Amino acid sequence: KTVGAAVSGGLDSCTITKWLVDNGVKVVCFTADLGQPDERDVSEIRERMLACGAEDAIIVDAKDALAEAGIRLVQCQAMYEGGYWNTTGIARHVTVKALLPEMEKRGVTILTHGATGRGNDQVRFQLATNMLNPHFAVYAPWRDPNFLKVFGGRKEMIDFCQAHNLPITATHEKPYSTDANLLGLTHEAGRLESLKTPAGFITPGMGVHPKDAPDDVEHFTVTFARGTPVEVNGSPVTSLQGLLEANRIGGRNGVGIGIHTVENRFVGIKSRGVYESPGMELLGKCYEYLLQLILDRRARRHFDGVATTIAEQIYQGYWFDAATQALLASIEPLTNLASGTITVALYKGNVAFHASGGAPHSLYSEETASMEAIGDFDHADSEGFLAVLGVGARASAVAGQTQE
């Protein structure tokens, strides 16, 4: 049969493609161009996959789609445990959505991928494919006993590729593996599996470690219109341009570089990752400062609960399901209020509030909040307010429900 292989051009991609071809399977490779920072020229992936025996190798541009999805994450503050911006998680959903139509055009109805049987990506590829096109089959070599007899891990794959002169960059000495897209880098495995290895061990691919950032403060200004960044430092931007510029500026100031997490994988395993996501962290922090202006306490309570759940939904592979869409729809009225300009000060990995303006839906009033003058809020009005609250407080004490 013919399979459509979703490939990145790395070790797993080369190994699986060659192994399938050697076993009589026709392989057509499909790569989503996600603006991978670690690829000098994404078109080179095509040449690598053809060298591994693929019948053909197709590159599909998905940069704008990923950037727009990234902005959606910013809008719902969808960070998974420990501050992980779900950069790889959302990219899997975007990849499947971009590649399935291209496979269909060529009569391919079996998607294969290189995700391992103990990770999250296998779930994301599987569920996204099942939800977007239930007629597609999914074949995962890392769950195939025949594949597992030959390949126990990276060592065997590297030996296999070297024996067949396949164009890989992985070596036995490489201390960890990296998954990359324009939203961020995910570093894991190898030396990073030891908690005695500090997060600073990684070599940043999207900026510098905070300690190596400039000694001077740099200001960053972003204007949001209904939740979407439309200007960065006074220049109009698309979602993609805004993220790329935030990556550049945030990265050189050490923002979002070396984020350490020990997280709960969907399969029940604890894993350690070190993440880079300078643009997401920078825009995300600016958006949070804007939310502080527009959300009242009831909206805040709803938003925070939704943010946590959406982050988990993405992480576990449920971006396209009805629950996620309902959650996103429930905060759309709040997203539509998120217009305004935020300026932050960047210094060695830190993002500090500097100024805000042009937020027409801001609930903050300097006059009302002032401790210097009465304004519209008369301090004396709180007498009745506290008297009403005191009724319940006294009743709790009389009923013996309070504790010292």
UniProtKB/TrEMBL annotation:
Q: Which GO terms describe its biological process?
A: argininosuccinate metabolic process; L-arginine biosynthetic process; urea cycle
Q: What class of enzyme is it?
A: ligase
PROSITE patterns from the UniProt entry: ARGININOSUCCIN_SYN_2 (PS00565)
Q: What is the lineage of its organism?
A: Eukaryota, Metazoa, Porifera, Demospongiae, Heteroscleromorpha
Arginosuccinate synthase-like N-terminal domain span: 5-167
Pathway involvement of the protein, from the record? Amino-acid biosynthesis; L-arginine biosynthesis; L-arginine from L-ornithine and carbamoyl phosphate: step 2/3; Nitrogen metabolism; urea cycle; (N(omega)-L-arginino)succinate from L-aspartate and L-citrulline: step 1/1
GO CC, alphabetical: cytoplasm
Determine if Nucleotide-binding is one of this entry's keywords: yes
The UniProt keyword set, sorted, is: Amino-acid biosynthesis, Arginine biosynthesis, ATP-binding, Ligase, Nucleotide-binding
Q: Name the Enzyme Commission number(s) assigned to this protein.
A: 6.3.4.5
Q: What is this protein called?
A: argininosuccinate synthase
Q: Which GO terms describe its molecular function?
A: argininosuccinate synthase activity; ATP binding
| SUPFAM superfamilies reported in the protein's UniProt record | Adenine nucleotide alpha hydrolases-like (SSF52402), Argininosuccinate synthetase, C-terminal domain (SSF69864)
Q: Which residues form the Arginosuccinate synthase C-terminal domain?
A: 176-393
